[in-house]
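ESCALATION

Customer reports they have been waiting on this structure for their group meeting. Please prioritize. Original submission:
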Amino acid sequence: MRTEPETIELTEHEIREITAYAADCARRTLSLFEQSLPADPRPREAVDAADAYASGGPRTAALRQSAWAAYKAAQEATAPAAADAARAASHAAAAAFLHPKASAHQVKHVLGAAAHAARAEELAEEEAQEEQAAEASASGEDRRDAAGALDWARRHAPAAVPAVLGRLPAAPPGGGRVGEFIRALDAALRT
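Update from on-call: job pushed to the front of the queue and completed.
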């Protein structure tokens, strides 16, 4: 009987590349949070902390705390798009703590920021359509911005992202719409 390995090879360089990618994905939606809560700096601070680590800084308790602070900001946000933008920022800072565990859960750490950013863009488009009383199309046009965000994330993934994903089991089921995005990106980046 063949057993799967419990760990994967994972270099600090790869973790830094993945963290930089996660920060880039989250940064694209920071304005959605800041428009809703302009006085709350926690998501931006988390993205800045991720950038600092990706640029060679240390992995510190402050970096971990910035991820938790952005997560708390997401819980406090009342606008759904703002909440997912803050979750993207939280995932960006948390990406620095990717573990070499051979677990499908680790795929969420690699692609969580991209998936939450895509969901934030999708929700922002839905909110804009509601505000403008635009007709919703049954053909799925309300999902166009998410598709664009996922395409951007796929095209901008550095080499470390598909390399590390290739060592991990496929993304797990569940997770609602964000889980769908994670699985779609995971599948696209493994090909």
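Sent to customer with the following note: The chain has one domain: 12-190.
Escalation resolved.
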